[in-house]
TrEMBL record:
This is DNA-3-methyladenine glycosylase I. The lineage of its organism: Bacteria, Bacillati, Actinomycetota, Actinomycetes, Micrococcales. Zn(2+) binds at H200. The keyword Metal-binding applies. It comes from the Bacteria. Keywords: Metal-binding, Zinc. One of its GO terms (molecular function) is metal ion binding. One of its GO terms (biological process) is base-excision repair. The keyword Metal-binding applies.
Amino acid sequence: MTQETNANATAHATDAISIDLIIGEDGLARPPWAAGDPLLRAYYDTEWGMPVRDEAGMFERISLEAFQSGLSWATILRKRPAFRAAFAGFDPERVASFADADIARLLGDAGIVRNRRKIEATIQNARATLALRDGGSDLAELVWSFRPAQTPRPLRIAEIPVKSAESEALAKRLRAEGFTFVGPTTMFALMEACAIVDTHLVGSHRRATSGVWTA
């Protein structure tokens, strides 16, 4: 094998696994965002990219993705216990009943993100969730109905999409159902988090572990 041929073979082999992955002390490959902070690492290893198929779970994810807009996910993750306490465990029925006094309470809660528009959006989205239920539909089933035929297979972080035709269609449908703070980029992030698409980098120890996608 010539030196040039050997170099090409090495480059091809390297290209089969993302060069953006970081190998941890445990020998597992993770993307940079999940390689350092213990909280993010645990979230990546056990939760992100795993299926969420129940109504309350999907409502929580939509709510937290909305609050994350403009902020880091680490900020939201650290505040998640406070969010759950403040929003009644993200029970759609209880959140849908929130009134002005609850909004004032939430605006005074330093444990969460005190953004009036996002708080009001969460309450509105709880009501929209119940309206779906009353119409014989289910929030989780609706979101999953926008699962694409294929999932991305990114080798590098730069190859991970920020939105898709399906996330744009999902955002449009949710808006039509009365939801807010559900733009196509936010909905793509939701789809990633819930395993509707698999954007784990090729070579990550979490790639194709959701049971939804096989490669």
